[in-house]
Amino acid sequence: MKQSFESGMIVYHPVLLVATYNHDDTPNAMLVAWGGQAGENQIALNLLPHRTTENIVANGGFTVSCATQEFLASCDYVGIVSGDKVPDKLARAGFTVTPSKRVNAPIIDQLPVAFECKVVELKEEFDGTRVVGEVVGMEVDDSVLTDGKIDLSKVHPVVYDNVMNCYRSVGPNIADAYSIGKKFQ
How distant, in Å, are the alpha carbons of 61, 70, 119, 151, 157 from that of 105? Predict the structure, then answer.
């Protein structure tokens, strides 16, 4: 039997670290769960007012890295501590950075996948800013590639479960997409 609810959602979101440079060129990042792929070559983020949001507007670029099981505590720390209060929060979390070759933003060295994004749209909505970035490049550690493709079973990304307020792992491959259903043709 199904239960009836007035409202609510069961939504899981990729846990993303969005990195920028502050006005003094020091690296900064925030944890974002309200974001993801938007079209073939774009990433959309829904951000409340933060230093990172201001940096994205000022710099016109940012990087997005997938939080991983291995570095989840570090990623979570970056999300719960404000860069306004702890300017060296990336270093405290054990992260180092390398400048992106394609946009004015840092890449977090310890996270194996980084999308380099150029801002293509900023829209004020829902008490925040919707940022759309065009992916102009990716930096991917060799250790997470299989046959030249990003292998999520090697990345070990996590998702945010907003109903239970927890992080969950992405599981193993259970079927080939757009193939398993062919048995009904």
Answer: 6, 23, 12, 25, 22
- Mean pLDDT, the chain, as a whole number? 94
State the Cα–Cα distance between residues 95 and 68, nearest whole angstrom: 13
CATH pick for 12-184 out of 3.40.50.300, 3.90.1150.10, 3.40.50.720, 2.30.110.10: 2.30.110.10
**Rounded-to-integer distance, Cα 21 and Cα 8, Å:** 36
CA distance 52 to 47: 9
User: Facing residues of 19 across strands?
Assistant: 29, 63
Q: Is 53 exposed, middle or buried (0-12, 13-18, 19+ CB in 10 A)?
A: buried
User: How many CB atoms within 10 Å of residue 123?
Assistant: 12
Quick one: DSSP state of residue 3? -
**Where in the chain are the domains?**
12-184
Question: pLDDT tens digits, residue range 101-157?
Answer: 999 999 999 999 999 999 999 999 888 999 999 999 999 999 999 999 999 999 999
Distance CA(51)–CA(29), nearest Å, equals 9
Tokens of 75: 């990623």
Give the pairing of strands 113-125 and 42-47: unpaired
Closest among 173, 168, 158 to 66, alpha carbons compared = 158
